[in-house]
Amino acid sequence: MSMTFDPLHHPHPSYRQPAYARRGMVATSQPLAAQAGLDILRQGGNAIDAAVAAAAALTVVEPCSNGIGGDAFALVWTGDRLHGLSGNGPAPASISIDALRERGHEAMPRLGAIPVTVPGAPAAWAELSSRFGRLGLDELLEPAASYAEQGFPVSPVAAYYWDRAFQSYGKQLSTENVAAWMETFAPHGRAPRAGELWASPAHAETLRSIGRSGARSFYEGELAERIHACIWERGGFLTAADLAAYAPEWVDPIHVRYRDFEVWEIPPSGQGLVALQALSILDGFEFRPEERLGAEAIHRQLEATKLAFADGLKHLTDPRHMKVAPEQLLSPEYAALRRGLIGPQAMMPEPGRPGGSGTVYLATADNEGNMVSFIQSNYMGFGSGIVVPGTGIALQNRGADFSLDPSHANALLAGKKTYHTIIPGFLTRGGGQPVGPFGVMGGYMQPQGHVQAVMNLVDYNLHPQAALDAPRWQWHEGLSVSVEPHFPADVAEALERMGHAVRREDGFGSFGRGQIILRDPATGVLCGGTDFRTDGIVAGF
């Protein structure tokens, strides 16, 4: 792959051209967040500063997909190497399978106080800022605080998901939780519409407190006490002690070689390993550009993805509790073994049941060579539905993925981190030359989106915008596959003849939303794309 793309090589004539810049670039799912990151670059901040600023802004301008009370992960290229940061929090110290069964639960609840785990995002912002940033955390969070305090016009896709959450939470949450959620996110008795102003002064106050204290107020101060009180009043398990004990973890990213590139992901408990295993299987096949939307090529991608998910859903959890090492699942020998199972007809593995999500992904780069792949989530839309009164903090429901079966790899255990869906990606070449950050948000769609984006870039030589705009498929379970409205009808019919149960979706909502930034090693020019399935832009200068 080179930076020389055919600008007319688009999968659909309405798709946009990529963006180019030299001094800095920020690609996010919401324009105001991208501008917040770009402003930080213009003020002398680096790509790490810009990522933190954009991430904080996204908790305000796209609260239907992430929040202060969620988790975050980052891959950071700086100092001629790639660093990984896991900002995911564990289950509370007082929770247990027995405690939930005594309350009559046969499965982990999806909403409410019980599935709330320790939020890692604020600590991740502070850690990135203190280790690699140039500006103070308070400066980085001020654009987000200003949006929250002064209000901003809601963007169209955010308004759509905001309303979906309003309809859903109103039916599923308790009266107490509905009231707190409505007060913050639907003060007029409905979700804000596209173009309407929404503000959250309490959210602004919380962000400024996090900025002044380096996030300690969230984990040890007044905010921690308010979170504790809120959860315990609602029958949850998270305490101030759980918050005080938390710190994000620097980790060694994992990777596989794919063609002439290295594809990097965060290690478990994240599901990036699923994407890597699928790509490792696919590396044994040849994919020519003219076959990009061919049924045989997509059939192989689907089969490799199913095999990788079958392993991931069985084995992935907190690495301290995994019985199979990631290296075993990513070995060339195991990839060859799994590849040998792929035949001309769709097969039926034994996976779990992938579901929905609420996540934001962003990518940043500067003219010093720093690049960041960052992802942040409250999980299912606004998360648990719990809003800490007077703070703007919507708490995640990441614990919903725990199993109450003690024999399951992802069984609930105090202090354990659950299987995690959100994953940032990064490409290098030649054993260490940075190519750039990429990501596709969207629950269990994320590894599948990573596979498709990487293949579009590497095998089919598409530029970042075309790589994101290309028609996507999504495997759900068994033989069930869905495709987007603009997916070729003849290819879908051919896949059905191969045994796949294909359904065409009416919209694009379940197929993920991504961003990509690539750097030309010869000139330093940045080339970025942002998904047409969201409100995002690529901001550069």
UniProtKB/TrEMBL annotation:
GO molecular function term, any single one: leukotriene C4 gamma-glutamyl transferase activity
EC primary class: transferase
Keywords associated with the record: Acyltransferase, Transferase
Superkingdom classification of source: Bacteria
Pfam families recorded: G_glu_transpept
EC number in record: 2.3.2.2
Protein name listed in UniProt: Gamma-glutamyltranspeptidase
Organism classification: Bacteria, Bacillati, Bacillota, Bacilli, Bacillales
